[in-house]
Amino acid sequence: MTYYESRARQLLAEFDTTIERVSDLFAARYGQADAAAIAGEARQVYGRLIPDLPYVGGVQPLTQFVIATGWFLAMYRALQARGRPVDEAGRLIYEVTEVYLQRYPGVARGLVGHLSFSKLYLARLRRRARESQARPYPDGYVFRYMPGDGATFDYGVDYLECASCKFLARQGAPELAPYLCTVDYIYSEMFGWGLVRTTTLAEGGDRCDFRFKRGGPTRIASSVLRLPPKEVGV
Q1: What domains are defined for the chain?
Q2: Alpha carbon distance 204, 187 (integer Å)
Q3: CA distances from 57 to 97, 135, 218, 229 (A)
C-alpha cells in the first residue's frame, strides 16, 4: 500500500471539502446539474489517481503540491470528457485556487506569509534543498536554495525537477502543467511573498526561478493564461 493509499479516506474528504468551498463557482460556470456531475466525476478520477501520486517524503508543503496536482488533473479529466479544452480547465484551476484561498481568514493568511520568511522556515528549506539534490525520491522535487542579494529578493528557490510536471507527463497530460504554475501568483498576493519568476520547467525552462521579497510586487510571466498587467513584464 502506498503512502497516499493509506490516507485515501482523508484525501477524499479533503477533496470533498475543496469542492464544497468552490461549489458556487462551479454552479455559476456550468449550472447546478452539470456542476454536480463534473464534481462527482472528478472525485472518481481523483480516487483512481491516489495510488499513483508521487511520494515526496511526506513533508509539507511539497506533499500538498502533489495532492493539489491530483485534484486539478481530476477536474481536467472530467472537463475533457465533455470536450472542454485545456485552457478552460486552466482558467477554472486559477479561479478555484483564488476562491479556495479567499475562504481563509486574513489573519491566517498573514501568519502563513510571516512564517514563510522566518529563520526556522528558511533553515528547513535549506536543509530540504540539500537533501533533494541526493534525489531520494525519483519522482519528487529537486531544488536549490538561493540566498537573498540584500536588495531585490530576500531568498530564492530554483526548482530543477518538478514532481507535478513528472506526474502529469506520466499521466499523459503535460499540457496542464503550465496552468498550475499560474496559481503561484494568487499565493504570492495573498501571502505577501513578493514573488518574481521569469521561467518554469513547465514551459520549457531549465528551472523554475522563484525569488521572494517580503511585501514586494508579484511579477510572473505566463504564455498560457492571460494575467492582469501587473503580473507580467518580467
Answers
A1: 5-231 (3.90.1520)
A2: 22
A3: 24, 11, 30, 37
For 15, the grid coordinates are 477533496
Contact criterion met (CB below 8 Å) for 202 and 165: yes
Nearest by Cα to 202 from 232, 178, 169? 178
pLDDT in tens, 156-211: 999 999 999 999 999 999 999 999 999 999 999 999 999 999 999 999 999 999 99
Give the CA dihedral 24, 28, 32, 37, nearest 10 degrees.
-90
pLDDT of the residue at 228:
65
Burial class (CB within 10 angstroms; exposed 0-12, middle 13-18, buried 19+) of 21 = middle
Whether this prediction's pTM lies above 0.90 is answered by: yes
How far apart, in Å, are the Cα atoms of 205 and each of 47, 56, 69, 130?
32, 22, 20, 22
Distances (CA, A) of 85 to 76, 175, 176: 9, 11, 10
Contact 183, 83 (CB under 8 A): no
* DSSP per position, 89-126: HHHHHHHHHHHHHHTS-HHHHHHHHHHTTSHHHHHHHH
Q: How far apart are CA 158 and CA 200, in angstroms?
A: 9
User: How far is Cα 103 from Cα 21, in angstroms, rounded to an integer?
Assistant: 8
Q: What is the mean pLDDT of residues 74-98?
A: 96
